[in-house]
Amino acid sequence: MTDIYENLNLRFEHTALKPETTTKDIEKLCQEALLWQFYGVVVNPVWVKECQTILRNTKIKIISVCGFPLGANRTDIKTMEAVKAVNDGANEIDIVANIGWLVADEFTKAEKEITEIRKSLPYNIILKVIIEANKLNKEQQINATRSVINGGAQFVKTGTGFFGGVTIEQVKTLYHAARGQIEIKAAGGIKEPKQARELIEAGASRLGCSSSIQIMEQLKIENNDKRP
Amino acid sequence: MTDIYENLNLRFEHTALKPETTTKDIEKLCQEALLWQFYGVVVNPVWVKECQTILRNTKIKIISVCGFPLGANRTDIKTMEAVKAVNDGANEIDIVANIGWLVADEFTKAEKEITEIRKSLPYNIILKVIIEANKLNKEQQINATRSVINGGAQFVKTGTGFFGGVTIEQVKTLYHAARGQIEIKAAGGIKEPKQARELIEAGASRLGCSSSIQIMEQLKIENNDKRP
């Protein structure tokens, strides 16, 4: 089951970030990730331990958001939240940049914050930085991506999903700004196989998605797959 | 200027919580609060120090949200964020409960978390707990309010504003559940003087509001106030 449908499943970070998400929802999320062999699950920090209990000794990665979804926390709190998430079992951290700094072109501050968070995490933990591209003009998206690179993170992520969906244009902009130095995670409003493919073609290596199951079910039909 | 228009200004917590809020926006927020003599300003934690610089030695209170707006953080991180906000100059803390616990009727967990946060804050700091009423049924709203009381907080707050606006019905429900033991803060989508008055009549003693200026300007016209 690991190479079905153009390996699209391996691109998906299966996501549940609503405030009303319950323990049961988290269990379901993890079971679905196992069934479809998604790359990982993305959860709020309070649920990381729950995921770890279910997913340890499996290939599914646990991704915790931090400073989410506003990014307007003190740097030390964002850092501590990330460190604790790793201690609880997170393999990757998706942190929200201070968007107020980005829209005010204060990229040095943003870079310094990312550097500090990166320094506090073990080397084998992947750090993604969310820049909320929907709030930025094209030049700011490019400069923000440079800050993410200079801060030592591994991915730039388009948005939280709370402030509009990702566009192909955004992924292209980030991909070109990244110059192969970091990868791109697209997130927000991904609902169709076609859209998922286009985002990957535009340069995204990962897709953050709450509709992953619905997309996989559509792919199953497209591929005339009769398995239950 | 402190008793204009039925003292409505003294009910307002003048709010700026968007991710793209900048230093300049925060300065403007504080100046507006001074001009209209609002009860206080509500900001994300990274901006508390900025407010403190402008508002120290004035009557305007500084309110920091914490664990905002999802509430799905570890309890120790929420607590540390609140403690740091107070150290930075916050007079009041608006913390988001774990909404996933509330919708799953796990009120004991919610109460324990509130108790822990309350214990970590100085006695003179007002603690408000956001229960996101739009995600709860009426019984859950009542039980959540009881948890807020038992946890030792001073206010129950209807919502974050990120998941729909407050209703008169919600304020009535919370007010009756509170039995005078805690106060009610209404927040989310408050845009008209009439609505503000109705929420107060229903039992809210404070209003969290991003449209405070627009409401005061309308009141100025209603009251035929010619001052600039």
What characteristics describe this protein?
homodimer; 228 residues; alpha/beta; TIM Barrel; eight-stranded parallel β-barrel
What fold name goes in the CATH topology slot of chain A? TIM Barrel
The largest pleated sheet of chain A is described as:
8 strands, parallel, barrel
Work out the oligomeric state of the chains in this entry: homodimer
Please give the number of β-strands of chain A.
8
Number of helices of chain A: 9
| Name of the CATH superfamily of chain A | Aldolase class I
Please state the average pLDDT score of chain A: 96
Q: Indicate the low-confidence ranges of chain A by residue numbers.
A: none
The gross shape of chain A turns out to be globular
β-strand amount of chain A: 15-25%
Please, could you describe this protein's structure?
- The structure is a homodimer of 228-residue chains.
- By secondary structure, chain A is of the alpha/beta class.
- The first copy, chain A, has one domain: Alpha-Beta Barrel (TIM Barrel).
- Chain A is built from 9 helices and 8 strands.
- An 8-stranded parallel β-barrel of chain A has the order 1-2-3-4-5-6-7-8, surrounded by 6 helices.
- In chain A, helix 1 links the parallel strand 1 and strand 2 (40-43).
- In chain A, helix 6 packs across helix 7 (168-178).
- The longest helix of chain A has 14 residues, at 23-36.
- Chain A is globular, with a radius of gyration of 17 Å.
- The mean pLDDT of chain A is 96.
- Chain A binds chain B through residues 17-25, 44-47, 68-74, 76-77, 80-81, 84, 88, 96, 98-101, 103-104, 132, 135, 162-163, and chain B through 17-25, 44-47, 68-74, 76-77, 80-81, 84, 88, 96, 98-101, 103-104, 132, 135, 162-163.
